[in-house]
Amino acid sequence: QVQLVESGGGLVQAGGSLRLSCAASGSNKYTMGWFRQAPGKEREFVASVRWGGTTYYADSVKGRFTTSRDNAKNTGSLQMNSLKPEDTAVYYCAAQSRYYLSPYEFDIWGQGTQVTVSS
After folding, report:
1. Pick from 76-80, 84-88, 95-99: least confident
2. Which candidate in 24, 40, 67, 119 could, as Cys together with 74 as Cys, close a disulfide (CB 3.0–4.6 Å)?
3. Nearest-CA neighbor of 115 among 47, 43, 18?
4. What's the gap between Cα 97 and its chain centre?
5. What is the pLDDT of residues 8-42, one digit of tens each?
């Protein structure tokens, strides 16, 4: 099964930018995604990208975050701009082990990376 490793988290001031990366241990021809979980809250969908490049975003990040993937390198990324304190969370990379019709359903998860946005 594919394993995922995130990188790129850190501390940034409000209005700043961060880029998260996700490296997959092998080829994955299905949707890749990003979720986040803030303290005391449930994990929530952030963005996803299909093998062919179609993207999906949560309303809360639309226009500020951009997700993409490099199929040749088995990597995904999440470019986060205009960050807000409410974006503070642990961010998880996710992938599908088989085809799912839904771009919001995943069964492979990375270990997570902390993103903290100070006001």
Report:
1. 95-99
2. 24
3. 18
4. 16
5. 999 999 999 999 999 999 888 899 999 999 999 99
